[in-house]
Write a structure and sequence with these properties.
alpha/beta; four-stranded mixed β-sheet; disordered N terminus; 16 strands; single chain
């Protein structure tokens, strides 16, 4: 047994280097527990001579005698007894891994929804841990969160507040942040103070509930002006028309965060403070589905604080990722 055991642990790389197979370790475990080759062979559903040959091959590969045997009895040698608990643990780990892999492979796809933002590499992140089905219904944040709560989705990437998580019994992890800017008429791209911006709100609460909540809190906290519109003018050409008519810097909506502006308009950073819009991965509290948990781990493993740095930035008081 010299070299095969290191302290109280088996030297597993050396076992594999010796050509040992997991199947042979199962055979050894069966004989060690039965102390009878005939009963062990019945338990393993193999022929007695085949079992004996496999044990001899294992002893030859390990260069260790594992059993003392005669016509009437089988006993473990000192080397076999020392190896037994480690082999048992290894076989149990292999069985658990097989059960987990089988559970992931046979489970239904993990259903995930989003609003606008999603990681560009989410297919690669989920590969190997679960089957991912991206929901084609791109709906508002409050709707996607509610769909997770009622079981229509397993996960969603959306904007939520502490009150949403509490009322819907959801958990959340930060996965993305947008630094909002203002759109203005002309060519001046210098920073603009938050209290010099206009925030458009929409009368359609069924669609714009999250943005209306965010915008109203931003205006109240910074002194920005609000303007309620009824023409769907929070994004796209209607939004640009509002900017031209107001001739003041208007806070952009995160759904239009990456879209280009017309040539007569310019993007301006908002400062003192800079508004941040957080994207959360949300799931049901107490989730036990191993596939869902695996996707959560894959999507959140490498996420840092994403520069939520307090004094120079602004988050709503109820944002779950706000410090303090």
């Amino acid at each position: 047994m010299i070299g095969l055991l290191s302290g109280d642990r088996p030297n597993l790389p050396l076992l594999y280097a010796c050509g040992v197979e997991l199947r042979q370790l199962r055979y050894f475990l069966a004989v060690a527990e039965e102390l009878n080759f005939g009963r062990a062979a019945d338990r393993l559903h193999i022929a007695g001579p085949s079992l004996s040959q496999q044990i001899k091959a294992l002893e030859r590969d390990l260069k260790v005698s594992l059993f003392d045997r005669d016509r009437r009895s089988v006993t473990l040698t000192a080397g076999g007894a020392a190896l037994l608990p480690h082999v048992r643990a290894l076989v149990e780990q292999a069985d658990e891994l097989r059960r987990q892999a089988a559970g992931l492979a046979t489970s239904a796809p993990v259903r995930i929804g989003y609003v606008k933002w999603c990681p560009a590499d989410w297919a690669e992140r989920a590969a190997g841990v679960a089957r991912l089905r991206v929901d084609t219904w791109v709906l508002p944040s409050h709707t996607q969160a509610a769909r997770v709560a009622d079981g229509s989705l397993d996960l969603a990437i959306c904007w939520v507040q502490d009150a949403d998580l509490e009322s819907l019994s959801l958990a959340a992890h930060l996965v993305g942040v947008d630094r909002l800017y203002a759109v203005d008429v002309g060519s001046d791209s210098s920073p603009v103070a938050a209290n010099d911006t206009v925030v458009l709100l929409d009368v359609d609460e069924s669609t714009w509930s999250s943005w209306n909540s965010y915008g109203a809190q931003f205006a109240a906290g910074t002194g920005a002006r609000t303007l309620t519109v009824d023409d769907g003018g929070l994004t796209g050409q209607p939004f640009f028309e509002h900017v031209r008519r107001l001739r003041r810097p208007v806070l952009n909506n995160p759904k239009a965060q990456d879209g280009p502006e017309p040539g007569d308009l310019v993007r301006r950073p908002v400062v003192a403070p800079t508004p941040l819009w957080t994207w959360s991965l949300v799931w049901r509290r107490g989730e036990t589905n191993p596939a869902v948990l695996a996707v959560i781990e894959a999507f959140t493993a490498d996420v840092g604080d994403l520069s939520l740095d307090g004094e120079s930035t602004w988050l709503p008081a109820g944002d779950p990722h706000r410090a303090g």
